[in-house]
Amino acid sequence: MAPKYSSSRENYLKAIFHLQETHGTVTTNDVAAEMETRPASVTDMLKKLKAQKLLLYERYKGFKLSNEGRKVALQIVRKHRLWEYFLVEKLHFGWDEVHEIAEELEHISSKKLIDKLDEFLGFPKTDPHGDPIPDSQGRWTLTRQVDLLNLPINKVAEVSGIGDQSAEILELLRHKNIALGTRLEVKKRFAFDNSLELKIKNQSPVTISEHVAKNVFVKYDE
Residues of the chain whose pLDDT is less than 70? Predict the structure, then answer.
């Protein structure tokens, strides 16, 4: 039977996993900022995770997950994203409402329940925000995508992922009728502030800020 970890330790493993995806090795300060806690608290937890062989430490570089730590983190990510998918697709929550609920549900430890949930949902590949869902072996499929700032003008593309998944930005996107699967094109870039004018089918043009544009990912035919 796989060992059980406290919710707090799982939260740290997941945070380190996400930081590692973009930073490589991570520092105590990186984790403290991500977890919104004091570096001293982080140091204590990192020592515990290292003692459990879930973390590796490289002198002068920082921490990264061990193979076992990555395996545990991937299963937490899997549970979180499956629960988000369930909440949106089956219980009809808005995509801006599910993150905090999934944060609680991801700590349910029953592997059988999660495998049954995955099967019930039809083995979805991505969550409601376009993030890949790891399978039971921790494997996932990556989609080649670019953010809207790098989408060529007048190129029709399909929204495939959202970077910043705060409730505020998701609410704004919903207000502008931008969701996963929305087909759109960039009609104009404004040099003044890097905002974009978008054309969405059967809709008046909408303008989005640079911050929003760099957090909306799309896929398109070359």
Answer: 1-3, 222
Q: Are 49 and 9 in contact (CB under 8 A)?
A: yes
Decide if 158 contacts 217 (C-beta within 8 A).
no
Q: The pTM is what?
A: 0.79
Domain boundaries, the chain: 7-65, 146-219
Residue 2's pLDDT is: 58
Q: Which of 193, 148, 200, 142 is nearest to 174 (CA)?
A: 200
The fold of the 7-65 domain, in CATH, is Arc Repressor Mutant, subunit A (1.10.10)
Q: Are 139 and 155 in contact (CB under 8 A)?
A: no
Quickly name the fold that domain 146-219 has: SH3 type barrels. (2.30.30)
CB 16 within 8 A of CB 62: no
pLDDT of residue 221: 80
CB 13 within 8 A of CB 54: yes
